From TrEMBL:
Transmembrane residue ranges: 16-37, 49-75, 95-113, 134-155, 175-204, 225-250, 262-282
Keyword Transmembrane: yes
SUPFAM superfamilies according to UniProt: Family A G protein-coupled receptor-like
Record protein name field: G-protein coupled receptors family 1 profile domain-containing protein
Residue ranges the record marks as coiled coil: none
Amino acid sequence: MTNASLTNDNIILDSIGIAVCVLTICKTFIFIFMILIRHQMKKSNEKILFILSFNMYMSICIFTLFVLDMFISMLKGHIYSNLFQIYNDTQWCRIKAYLTNVAMLYTLYSNTFHALHRFFRIIYYTNRFLHQNVYLYITGIFIQLVLSLLQPLPLLLAHIYQYEDYHCQIPLTQWFAVIIGSIVIWMPPLSITIGIYMYTLNYIRSNSPMFTHRQQTRIRRDITVIRRVVWSVLFIVLCAIPAFSIPIIYSLFNFFGWWANHLAWLGFVLSFLGMSIVHTYFSPHLRILWARPANRIHTTTVITVANLQ
């Protein structure tokens, strides 16, 4: 493959990545906007669900903005290769890579937060503080942000982020860096989410004879939501397979395709886009956002002499 054709292929993949990012940003921004403008239609007992949904959509939008900036940098670099190489290999480039991982981790934790809320509704249904206190979940979001900032910080301090293909990232050809990145970013939220699901299933099997009919109905609804959260997690893992298979292929065959970075980051964006679609489709409380307000017909009773007889 000649340099000209390789450059053209890179530009095509850059453009596809930019288009997917723009689609994801538009989708999430629409729901963020609808949640904000239609707040008066929300029931009081659904405020926490809307806060968690807003948190998820916002995190996906921010993460995709960072990836969009990365694809734009790659596009500029592939068009102006000699000029762009000089100005982009900076410490700010590595800080942006760190912030991209922060946004990715925050998005994964937002999915875990949904499972945790349903876990509290099932296991501690008598303790309303754990599943109906809005301020508790606002505090939880703050803790989620702190964890997301701290966990990838060792990658930045250890200088693991490297400049390649006109952007900075964890180098996919270095086993140690990929393993550390997986342990720091992926393993905690995914393992917590799956652990919540397994513990909840075990609790239901052990205590199902003691549940009332009303509790069983509510538990079935909540466990369905947790199961869908787990399915979205598995979808994320499947879309992330290209990123984790690249180091294996490189180690076995000493081969690193020119398309490897595009494939890895497109997988991440598509996984979070899929997660947002699953959440939108299977969340009943979000249907109010596009439902028309019901027209209430107020009737009055006319009292006549015949009615009184």
